[in-house]
Amino acid sequence: MNFAPLLEKPLHPAIAMAVREFQAIAPGDALPRKLDFRPSSLRLYLGFVFLVDVLPNDYRWSLVGEQMQVLFGIPNTNPYLSYLIPAAHRGGIKETYDTVVETRSFLYVRGRYSWPDRSVEIERLLVPLADGEGRLNAIFGMTVPNTSIDLLHVYAGVGAAKLEIDEQLAGA
User: Fold this and answer.
1) How far apart are the C-alpha atoms of 156 and 97, rounded to whole Å?
2) Which residue range(s) make up the domain with 49?
3) How many CA atoms lie within 13 A of 113 on its CB side?
4) What does the pLDDT look like over 41-86, one tens digit per residue?
């Protein structure tokens, strides 16, 4: 997967570390395999990591880091997108997942998660992952807020947030 255009941008160190990890396990145009990805390789940033299973008509979170549970404003129970995120907020999140599946490439987003009375600026990376046969079956995600982990509990709203996108870069 060609991450070169993304690496030309100023990135949060966690996002840059994830990009380098995926370059190492999937050089060239190869789609990274889910089996080759080791969450422990991003040990310092595991709280910001999530994995999403790609289903025929939905998405299901199979791993959600602690900070992501706070930022998403949702518990890690019945982790289907259609169940956890209200339809009014689902659009931006679902569209980003759909883009990754359709293009079979990464998607980088700079924007914010917003609730009625507050918002948190974020950087977000989504990377498609393949099974052993090369079929896209999961999406790696990392969302890094612009605030400290200690303040995240204060700034995060109640309930699911709406994803608002200021800038995005999709891989080719």
Assistant:
1) 22
2) 4-38+45-170
3) 26
4) 888 888 889 899 999 988 988 887 877 777 766 555 557 777 666 6
Q: Determine the Cα–Cα distance for residues 39 and 59; give it in Å rounded to an integer.
A: 20
Sheet containing 136-145: which strands, arranged edge to edge?
59-64, 49-54, 136-145, 118-130, 107-115, 162-170
Overall number of domains in the chain: 1
| CATH classification at residue 95 | 3.30.450.20
Measured distance CA(130)–CA(144) in Å, rounded:
24
SS3 category, 62:
strand
Single pTM value for the model: 0.88
State how far the Cα of 105 lies from the Cα of 148, in Å rounded to an integer.
29
Q: Where are the alpha helices (DSSP H) in 4-148?
A: 4-7, 13-25, 66-72, 81-84, 87-103
The two three-digit tokens of residue 116, written as one number: 């009625």
User: Which pLDDT tens digit goes with each residue over 110-130?
Assistant: 998 887 777 888 999 999 999
CB neighbour class for 113 (10 Å; exposed up to 12, middle 13-18, buried from 19) = buried
Residues making up the chain, counted from first to last: 172
